Amino acid sequence: MSPRAAWRLETLGFSAVYDYEAGKVDWFGAGLPREGKRSAGPYALDVTVTDVPTCRLTDRVGDVRPRVRAAGWRICPVVNDEQIVLGLLREKELDSDPEAVVELVMRPGPSTFRPNLPVGELIEYLGKFEMAEAVITSSDGKLIGLLRCVDAERSARGAKATTA
To answer: Exposed, middle or buried by CB within 10 Å (0-12, 13-18, 19+), for 155?
Structure first.
């Protein structure tokens, strides 16, 4: 079971949930320093914005929406006290009833991406599914930040220009 799923089960009242041990891939997936011939990038972490709005399961949509919009985002990760991503509010949910509780309108188990994912692969995936932003997490589901597809595309163009 993934750590993110385990954290979500805990919020639903389950107590016997288990995690797995970390390894080399987890090191890179956590966005820690990288070395070697494949370290140049660009990688998702290189264009991830880390200071992003978040919300909790018990927040009201009407309290979350202004913070998200003021920060210039169209999505908001739903996190627990440990910053584990439990869900996501997209524009549809942010535009829903302001009195609604986040847990009742959020999209549970959103797609998340690791910081060591090459930008080119991420751009391809986001384009295929018509996504303008991506949630970047560590391998244990902890929020690192959000990535805008336009920033990733700009970074990829810059990398091509410097290698040409």
So the answer is: buried
